[in-house]
Amino acid sequence: MASLFLYMGMCMYAPSLALSTVTNLSTVASIAIMGVVCTFYITIGGVKAVVYTDVLQTLIMLAGTVVVTVLCCYDLGGVGEVWTIADQGQRLQFFNLDPSPFVRHTFWSTIVLGFYNTLAVVGLGQAAFQRLASVSHLSTAVRLCWVFLLGVWSLFIIFFCGLVAYAEYSECDPLAAGLTTKADQIIPFLVMDKLGHLPGLPGLFVAAVYGGVLR
């Protein structure tokens, strides 16, 4: 229960932060509006509304993230250039076998955390159970679990917005330069700084963030 409260807080904070970065709306007002809207459609529509909105939000999340990543990669000179800059900055660590639990990211900590996190979210999570219970057969629920896992693994492989942001600002830190006030505003700032001239793109990005955390 405690972890669920923390998770809900992060889910409401992340899109509100993105929205406040691209608009003049305060974070507190954004959180309040989002809470009211979500409570309303879930109360009125029930599980059916949750499932339908999940599908729409997932599609928007995929579209927004892919568009931002592709356009920024093109601006930098391609995926190879992004990879090279990240490698030169020592941002790529795949097989760090250090057994120390005090190292932030290692092969072992990622495997262990990934296993228990997936088990908690898919196997024991209230949100996953709510969706799986809405199908008519157990076999269908099992297939949905496998589809979900394949989708999550694909997202980890395809999306690397963090590396793109690092490559864009490898020679100029927006936080150190005073262009942003918080480190977690880097991605929204990237969208406004590099892609804000494209009509509708900042809105698509904010919708993608909302779709990603409200699924």
UniProtKB/TrEMBL annotation:
Q: Where are the transmembrane segments?
A: 28-47, 59-86, 106-129, 141-166, 195-214
The organism of origin for this protein: Petrolisthes cinctipes (Flat porcelain crab)
Protein location: Cell membrane
Q: What's the protein name?
A: Sodium-coupled monocarboxylate transporter 1
Keywords in UniProt for this one?
Cell membrane, Ion transport, Membrane, Signal, Sodium, Sodium transport, Transmembrane, Transmembrane helix, Transport
Q: Where is the signal peptide?
A: 1-18
* Topology class, membrane: Multi-pass membrane protein
Record-level GO BP terms: sodium ion transport
- Asked if the keyword Cell membrane belongs to this entry, the reply reads yes
Kindly give the InterPro entries that the UniProt entry links to this protein. Answer: Na/Glc_symporter_sf, Na/solute_symporter, Sodium:Solute_Symporter_SSF
The record's annotation in Pfam families points to: SSF
The reply to whether Lipoprotein figures as a keyword in the UniProt entry is no
Matching entries from Gene3D superfamilies are given as:
Sodium/glucose cotransporter
State the PROSITE patterns in the record: NA_SOLUT_SYMP_3
GO CC entries:
plasma membrane
Family classification: Belongs to the sodium:solute symporter (SSF) (TC 2.A.21) family.
- A GO term, aspect molecular function: symporter activity
